[in-house]
């Protein structure tokens, strides 16, 4: 089968975890010898994260992700594919590639990536209604297979009145890419330099849904009793949200114990994860977060909210799960920071074992391809 993937963007802010997971899936298909092509839009300079990637400059309002060039190429790209994979919903590429898939009678697989979460559905509701009228209703009817990241997301798909087959296939990680980098790499020294304090790490977009407004006051409460810890906040700033977070850091008198280090990728991200003693994801809403898997793959114990949709974390005793509220997050952080080094190592090891057994890309891709063989005729 020849696979064509499309998504809104591969840029850190515009694509986020959606772009990252789409690239990883596409790259793994190529590694396994399958024909795969990935299409997305860009606004600044296109990045080329993998072979067989085509990016089209977008124009007009940013939230539409529209590209005249993409519109012209979509039909030809679809005609040369056997299965079309749509990652994400409600944007320009879905209109273009969905129309082409219907016109060419090509199987369409829709990957929801958390977009049926109530938090997401309630945002920009009128825009979603317009998208449904213009193209998504038609795409929903044409999709022959839906991919859910979790069983909860499968239920959310059914709740939208969708009768087509659903396969539950989570995101995965590449363990080789997350291996501990060489310690003598000069470029990585600022991220791995020895600090007497232990590191707690948040890694993701600086966006209101990520729960940083909970993390900072919770950190203020627990750090008074655990001043041997430091909180690092890594990731790109979205819509100037970092300014309000920095203001909160100052008002909570956390300047000496919280540091913003900006976006990190590649070896720098791996080095940063391996340097952490705790990973924190306090989100209000997630589909299936890549950063959580990446931290666990680096043997880092995790504090995460139930909104991250990963109950296996607590079941495997790989970290501490809490509700997305201040009191619950504070309690989980208190337990994590009070845990001794041996307990943190044990939880980190259990997390890595969980990832190795269930969440590496070769396993994920095989499950998805089996579903495509069964339903994409």
What can you tell me about this protein's structure?
By secondary structure, the protein is α/β, with parallel strands linked by helices. It folds into two domains: 2-172 and 360-375, Rossmann fold; 186-358, Rossmann fold. It has 15 helices and 13 strands. It has helices at 12-31, 68-79, 92-104, 118-121, 125-142, 151-159, 189-192, 212-223, 241-251, 266-275, 290-297, 312-315, 326-338, 341-358, 361-375, and strands at 2-9, 35-42, 53-57, 83-87, 108-111, 145-148, 166-168, 198-203, 229-234, 258-262, 278-281, 302-305, 319-322. The strands form two sheets. It has a seven-stranded parallel β-sheet with strand order 3-2-1-4-5-6-7, with helices on both faces. Strands 10-9-8-11-12-13 form a six-stranded parallel β-sheet, sandwiched between helices. Helix 11 links the parallel strand 11 and strand 12. The longest helix is centred in the N-terminal third of the chain and has 20 residues, at 12-31. It is globular.
């Amino acid at each position: 089968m020849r696979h064509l993937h499309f998504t809104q963007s591969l840029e850190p802010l515009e694509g986020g975890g959606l772009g990252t997971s789409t690239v990883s899936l596409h790259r793994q298909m190529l590694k396994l010898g399958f024909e795969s092509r990935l299409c997305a839009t860009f606004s600044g300079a296109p990045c080329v994260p993998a072979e067989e990637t085509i990016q089209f400059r977008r124009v007009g309002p940013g939230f539409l992700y529209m590209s005249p060039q993409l519109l012209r190429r979509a039909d030809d790209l679809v005609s040369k594919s056997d299965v079309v994979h749509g990652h994400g919903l409600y944007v320009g590429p879905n209109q273009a590639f969905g129309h082409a898939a219907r016109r060419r009678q090509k199987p369409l697989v829709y990957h929801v990536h958390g977009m049926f979460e109530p938090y997401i559905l309630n945002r920009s509701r009128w825009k979603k209604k317009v998208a449904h009228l213009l193209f998504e209703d038609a795409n929903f009817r044409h999709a022959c297979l839906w991919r859910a990241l979790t069983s909860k997301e499968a239920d959310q798909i059914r709740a939208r009145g969708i009768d087509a087959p659903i396969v539950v296939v989570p995101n995965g990680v590449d363990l080789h890419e997350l291996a501990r980098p060489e310690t003598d790499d000069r470029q990585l020294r600022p991220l791995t330099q020895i600090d007497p304090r232990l590191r707690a790490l948040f890694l993701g977009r600086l966006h209101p849904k990520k729960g940083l407004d909970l993390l900072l006051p919770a950190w203020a409460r627990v750090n008074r009793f655990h001043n041997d810890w430091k909180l690092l906040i890594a990731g790109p700033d979205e819509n100037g949200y970092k300014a309000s977070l920095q203001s909160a850091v100052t008002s909570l008198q956390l300047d000496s114990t919280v540091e913003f280090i900006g976006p990190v990728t590649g070896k720098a991200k791996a080095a940063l994860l391996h340097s952490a003693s705790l990973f924190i994801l306090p989100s209000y809403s997630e589909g299936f977060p890549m950063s959580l898997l990446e931290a666990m793959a680096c043997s880092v114990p995790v504090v995460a909210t139930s909104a991250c949709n990963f109950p296996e974390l607590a079941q495997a005793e790989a970290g501490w799960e809490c509700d997305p509220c201040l009191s619950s997050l504070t309690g989980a952080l208190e337990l994590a920071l009070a845990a001794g080094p041996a307990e943190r190592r044990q939880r980190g090891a259990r997390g890595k074992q969980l990832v190795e057994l269930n969440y590496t890309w070769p396993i994920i891709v095989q499950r998805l391809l089996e579903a495509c063989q069964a339903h994409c005729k």
